[in-house]
Design a protein that fits this description.
single chain, alpha/beta, 6 helices, 18% strand
Length: 195
């Protein structure tokens, strides 16, 4: 993905009809091949910001395109690029967290990163009228957790989540306990002398 944040079209408005479009088209005809030669991979998406005085778009172009891309296909391409660029070595700590995307309506995602490398490991969209828990569990099922420690916030402190990490994934976990698991919170407080 490339972004052209600087594009200057000289001349009075209307003097050269479609000049900007023609110039961009000529550049785009060769951009992917040039990028392939220089960086070892082609360009899939290009965005150019446009002066709002000349064009009043309602939504960011990249966002519109990414909304249409299947999450798992994009994720697989991202993993392949990261592996080719940075190798496959990661540390042993995986962090899972959910976020609502600002400006995207109701879009919520649960993501996983490797804490040491910062590498994105996966993303799962939260289904409509649901929450992060099932999306997080689905994401964890896709990850290679063998020998890792998964860190998750209190929302993910669920029996099924813990079972999935340990029994299916071969990893360990650190889960935070708050008021959403009252019995577990009391039991934990009793174990450390706080209750």
């Amino acid at each position: 993905m490339a972004n052209n944040a600087r594009f200057c079209r000289l001349g009075p408005k209307g003097q050269y009809p479609n000049l900007a479009s023609r110039a961009l088209a000529l550049n785009l005809e060769r951009l992917s091949a040039d990028w392939q030669a220089k960086y070892g991979h082609p360009i899939v998406v290009v965005e150019s910001f446009v002066d709002e005085e000349w064009f009043r778009g309602t939504e960011n172009c990249v966002y519109r395109v990414l909304k249409a891309v299947p999450v798992r296909a994009f994720q697989a391409a991202l993993w392949a690029w990261q592996k080719a660029r940075h190798g496959a070595a990661d540390g042993g700590v995986v962090v899972l967290d959910g976020k609502a995307l600002r400006g995207s309506g109701k879009t919520q995602l649960v993501g996983a990163i490797n804490a040491q490398s910062g590498r994105t490991l996966g993303v799962e969209a939260v289904a409509d009228k649901s929450n992060e828990i099932p999306a997080g569990q689905t994401l964890l099922e896709r990850l290679d957790l063998e020998g890792t420690i998964a860190l998750m916030d209190a929302l993910h402190t669920q029996v099924e989540t813990a079972r999935s990490v340990v029994q299916e994934g071969g990893g360990d976990y650190v889960l935070f306990v708050k008021g959403n698991q009252d019995g577990l919170l009391k039991q934990g407080a009793g174990q450390i002398g706080g209750g």
